Amino acid sequence: MEKIRLQKYLADNGIASRRKCEEYILDGLVKVNGKVVFELGTKIDSSKDVVSFKDKEIKNSKEEKIYILINKPIGYVTTVKDQFRKRYST
Which of 24, 30, 56, 59 is most buried, most CB within 10 Å of its CB? Predict the structure, then answer.
C-alpha cells in the first residue's frame, strides 16, 4: 500500500485539521508502532503501521463514499426555514 504523511492520516480519520495534527505531532501526542514521533512529514503505511493519538489507537476509517444526485423540480425550495415565506408555483 502507498505511504502517506502522518498528519494527513490523522486528519483523514477525524482527529483534527492537518495543521492542528502537526501541532499534536510536535507536542509528542502521536505514536507510530509504540514510539513517539516528533518529526513532521513522517510517512506511514496505513495497512501495516499502528498509529495512536493520546494512547488511543486510530482505526483507518477511509471507506468508499457513495454520492447520490437528486434533481430538484421547479417550484420547490430546499431550506430548513423559508425566511421570505414566498409562495412558489410551477
Answer: 30
DSSP 41-54: T-EEETTT--EEET
At 41, the amino acid letter reads G
State how far Cα 74 lies from the chain centre.
35
Q: Classify residue 78 by its DSSP letter.
A: -
Question: Longest Cα pair distance anywhere in the chain, in angstroms?
Answer: 64
Q: What is the pTM assigned to this prediction?
A: 0.66
Take residue 73 and report the three cell numbers written for it: 423540480
Q: How far apart are CA 50 and CA 52, in angstroms?
A: 7
pLDDT digits (tens, 9 = 90+) for 34-83: 999 999 989 998 888 899 999 999 887 766 778 888 888 887 777 777 77
